UniProtKB/TrEMBL annotation:
The chain crosses the membrane at residues 6-25, 46-74. Belongs to the CPA3 antiporters (TC 2.A.63) subunit G family. Pfam families: PhaG_MnhG_YufB. This is Na(+)/H(+) antiporter subunit G. NCBIfam families: CPA3_mnhG_phaG. It is a multi-pass membrane protein. Keywords: Membrane, Transmembrane, Transmembrane helix. It comes from the Bacteria. The lineage of its organism: Bacteria, Bacillati, Bacillota, Clostridia, Eubacteriales. It is found in: Membrane. Its main location: membrane.
Length: 98
């Protein structure tokens, strides 16, 4: 049962990684690409790490994976937001000069 559940989580993570990659290739501008990358990578990493936690059981490895999960959950959306905000501010300032 544990192997099946971890496989479901791992394939779910793989699915969201693939959707994020397709979004990076198909979306027209930087802001929508950043949105696709942030959402899909965060969810894909969370599902993949959750699958690894379920597979390893409750031990020190799963505690370390939970800390990595928390770190990704906080830093990935924050970093993407800062990059997108810098790009948006750059575009607004360029249009004011015209």
């Amino acid at each position: 049962m544990r192997i099946v559940l971890s496989g479901i989580f791992l394939f779910g993570g793989l699915f969201f990684f693939m959707v994020g990659t397709i979004g990076l290739l198909r979306f027209p501008d930087m802001l929508t690409r950043a949105h696709a990358a942030a959402k899909c990578d965060t969810l894909g990493a969370m599902l993949s790490l959750l699958g690894l936690i379920v597979f390893s059981g409750f031990n020190t490895i799963s505690l370390k994976l939970m800390l990595i999960l928390l770190f990704i959950w906080i830093t990935n959306p924050t970093g993407t937001h800062l990059i997108a905000k810098a790009r948006y501010d750059e575009e607004v300032n360029n249009y004011e000069d015209i």
